[in-house]
Q: What sequence folds into this?
């Protein structure tokens, strides 16, 4: 993609602070730094989102995540945990349409990152959950 910011970062046209790179992925610090060490893992092949991955390419890209996550955690003894997030589509807060995985170190409950989910469990009976699961299972690919 000629106008993709992540493709430009991968090619070196836009500077980045790289923490890991191999023939398949590049991991660099997110300029927003949701928390210190916030890193993006980006496949070098332009792929828009999770829906474009095949199983083999997903295995290649996602197999790098634990290694990079462990390095981030080991880099600072104050890191207590990590959120690993992959947004897909504008409705899911994807702002750059080149697949990327956020590794966001967590230092405390009061750090600068928050995830808020509403508990909707009271709205779903076991039967309703089974219907949702059946719809999903019917669309699984072999």
A:
């Amino acid at each position: 993609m000629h106008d993709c910011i992540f493709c430009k970062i991968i090619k070196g046209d836009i500077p980045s602070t790289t923490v890991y790179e191999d023939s398949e992925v590049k991991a660099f610090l997110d300029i927003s730094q949701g928390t210190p060490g916030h890193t993006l893992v980006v496949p070098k092949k332009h792929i828009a989102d999770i829906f474009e991955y095949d199983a083999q390419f997903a295995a290649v890209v996602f197999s790098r995540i634990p290694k990079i996550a462990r390095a981030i955690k080991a880099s600072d003894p104050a890191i207590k945990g990590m959120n690993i997030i992959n947004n897909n589509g504008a409705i899911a807060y994807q702002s750059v349409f080149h697949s990327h995985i956020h590794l966001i170190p967590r230092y405390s409950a009061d750090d600068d990152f928050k995830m808020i989910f509403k508990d909707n469990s009271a709205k779903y009976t076991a039967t309703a959950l089974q219907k949702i699961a059946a719809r999903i299972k019917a669309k699984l690919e072999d």
User: Anything to note?
Assistant: The mean pLDDT is 95.
